[in-house]
Amino acid sequence: MTKHAVVIAGGGPTGLMLAAELALARVDVAIVERRANQDLAGSRAGGLHSRTIEVLDQRGVADRFLSQGQVMQVTGFAMIRLDISDFPTRHNYGLALSQNHIEPILAAWVDELAVPIYREREVTGFAQDDTGVDIALSDGRSLRAKYLVGCDGGRSLIRKKTGIDFPGWDPSVSYLIAEVEMAAEPPWGIRFSDKGINALGKLDDGKRVRLVLIEPNVKQGDAPTLDNLREALIAVYGTDFSVHNVTFLSRFTDMARQAASYRDRRVLLAGDAAHVHGPTGGQGLNIGVQDAVNLGWKLAQVVSGTSPESLLDTYQTERHPIGARVLKNSLAQTALMRGDERTKALHENMSELLEMDEPRKRYAAMMSGLDIRYDLGSGHPLLGRRMPDLQLVTESGPRRVFTLLHDARPVLLDLGEPGVIDIAPWDDRVKRVDARYAGVWELPVLGVVAAPTAVLIRPDGYVAWVGDGTASGLRDALITWFGQPDHGPGATVSRRSATDSNTSTIATARRCDGTS
Ligand SMILES: Cc1cc2nc3c(=O)[nH]c(=O)nc-3n(C[C@H](O)[C@H](O)[C@H](O)COP(=O)(O)OP(=O)(O)OC[C@H]3O[C@@H](n4cnc5c(N)ncnc54)[C@H](O)[C@@H]3O)c2cc1C
Questions:
Q1: Residue ranges around ligand 1 (CB below 6 Å)
Q2: pLDDT confidence tier of residue 158, bands split at 50, 70 and 90
Q3: Position in ligand 1 atom list of the atom nearest CA 15
Q4: Cα(172) to centroid of ligand 1, in Å?
Q5: Residues 191-204: pLDDT tens digits?
Q6: Residue 313: helix, strand or coil by DSSP?
Q7: What is the mean pLDDT of the segment spanning 123-129?
C-alpha cells in the first residue's frame, strides 16, 4: 500500500491549491483525480477576485495568471458593478480568466512542486482509524494517509461517506448553460425573465453561441437534454432558433448548501465539497482557493507534529463563517435578479444605494474577499485581517511584504529597532525580518490605521499578532499558531529596552507576555 502524509481527493482549483500549499511546507502530498487532465467541458468560473490574486501573489505566482487574463473591474453584487480601483491594494481589480485557463496554470505549478497526481481514477471509499486513513481507489489500489481532504466538488463522495450533514436551501431556479449553433440570428445580450437573467453571446469564432437560460420549471441533475434546451429557449424567446450542434450542455442551480462541519477526525472538506451556491458574484472558485490557503499550513504543521491537532479546529472556526456569508449573499443576489416589476424596483434602489461610497466599499470588499477578518480577539484593527503588501526597506534592499511569504512560512516583521524582539525559540519555523516602512497603513473600508511596531504574519497572509512597542502577547500568539518552542517551556521572547536598543548593547530579556 502506497503511503502519503496527505491525500487530496479531487484536483480541481481547491485540490490543486491545497497540494501546492502542502508541497511548499514539504509535506508528502498526493492528489487523486478522476479526469485525465485539467480540460473542462464548457465553461465555469470566469475569473479571480482581488483577494485571490493577492494570495497567489503571496506565493509568487500571480503573474502567471495576470499574464493570461484581462485585468478589469469585475466585482459586483447582483450584477451591480462595484469599482474597487480606489482600494488600498496592489491588485485593485479582478481578473477575467476562465477556469479552463486557471486550472492548467495551477496544475503546472503543482507539477513543478513535484506533487504526484493519480489520474483517471477515483476515490471510491475510505476507512479512518486513530493513526490514519485507508483510501480505496477505483483501480483496485489503496493509499494510506495521515489525513484525507475531500476537494471533490459539490457532489463530494468524501463528504457523503463521512455522513457530515449538508443543510441549506433547495434550488428556486435552474439554468441551462450551453455552447451551440443556431440557424437563426438570436437577440444577443441579456434578457430578464421573472426568475432572473438569460444571456446569449457569441463565442470567439463569431459563429457559435454561448447561452445561459432559465428553465421554465426547476430541474436538477447535470445531464439535461436537447429537448430541455429547446423548451427553455421557447419559454424565454418564443423560438428555439433551430438550435443544433450542441458541443456542451450542462445545468446549474441556485441551490445553497454548506457542510455542517468541515472535518470529521482525519478527514477534511474544502471548496465546493464544503459549500455550494449559485454562481452570481463569481465566488465559488475564489473561496475554494482561499479555503485551501487557510487549511494548508495548519495541516502541514499538524502532520509534522509542530502543532497539536486542535489547530485544525481553527480551519472550521475561520472558514465556515466565510462560506456561510457567501451562501447568504448568493441567495440575496439571486432574489435581486428576478425580473418582475417589484424586484426590478428593489434592484434599482439597491443600485442607488451602492453608488454611495460607504455601501459600495463595504459590498465591494465583501465580494472581492478583501474585508475578511478572522476572529483572533480584540485589539489593533490589523489583527485577523490581511497583511497589506507594503513596500519595505530591509537590510537586503527594498522588499514587498508578499515576497516574504513566497515559501509559505510565517513571518515576524519587526519595524522597530533591528534585533529588539528575539524569537529564537521559533527560529526553525518563523522567519524574522527587520525592516523600515515610512508610509501609511491603510485597510480596505477601514481606511488608515495606527502603524504597528511589529506584526506576526501567518503563512496565509493574515495578521496573528500586532506589536505596540512591547512584545506583550507575542509568545502566546507564537504558541497558538506555530506550536511550542523547541527549547522547552522556559524559552522567552526578549525585548531590549528603548535605551538599550539605542546603544545597541545589552538586551533586557522579557517574557513576551509583557512581564520582565
Ligand atoms: C456555470 C458556473 C459558473 C461559475 N462561475 C464562477 C465564477 O465566475 N467565479 C467563481 O469563483 N466560481 C464560479 N463557479 C464555481 C466554480 O466553478 C467552483 O466553485 C469551483 O470549480 C470549485 O472548485 P473545487 O476544486 O472545489 O471543485 P471542482 O472544480 O468541482 O473540482 C472537483 C474535482 O474533483 C474531481 N473528483 C470528483 N469526485 C472525485 C473522486 N471521487 N475521486 C477523484 N476525483 C474526484 C473532479 O473531477 C474535479 O476535478 C461557477 C460554477 C458554474 C457551474
A1: 9-15, 32-35, 44-46, 99, 122-123, 151-153, 157, 177, 252, 271-272, 279, 282-286, 288
A2: very high
A3: 25
A4: 21
A5: 988 888 999 999 87
A6: helix
A7: 98
What residues contact residue 499 under an 8 Å CB cut-off, 6+ apart? none
Is residue 490 within 8 A of residue 416, CB to CB? The reply is: no
Burial 38-60 (b: 16+ CB within 10 A, else e): bebeebbbbbbbbbbbbbbbbbe
What is d(CA 478, CA 448) in angstroms, rounded to the nearest whole number?
27
pTM: 0.93
Q: At which residue does the C-alpha cell 432558433 appear? A: 241
- Maximum separation of any 2 CA atoms in the chain, in Å: 85
Residue carrying the nine cell digits 528575539: 422
Q: Cα separation of 470 and 473, whole Å?
A: 9
Closest atom of ligand 1 to 154 CA is 30
pLDDT digits (tens, 9 = 90+) for 244-287: 999 999 999 999 999 999 999 999 999 999 999 999 899 999 99
Match 505549478 to its residue by C-alpha cell.
Answer: 109
Nearest CA to ligand 1 atom 21: 285
With cut-offs at 50, 70 and 90, classify the pLDDT of residue 419: low
Q: What average pLDDT does this structure show over 333-349?
A: 94
**Substitution site in 72, 77, 99, 159 for ligand 1 pocket (most atoms within 8 Å of beta carbon):** 99
When pLDDT is cut at 50, 70 and 90, the band that residue 418 belongs to is low
CA distance 74 to 214: 23
Ligand 1: centre distance to CA 288 (Å): 9
Residue 12 CA to ligand 1 centre (angstroms): 6
Give the atom of ligand 1 at the shortest distance from the alpha carbon of 177. Answer: 1
Whose alpha carbon is nearest atom 2 of ligand 1?
44
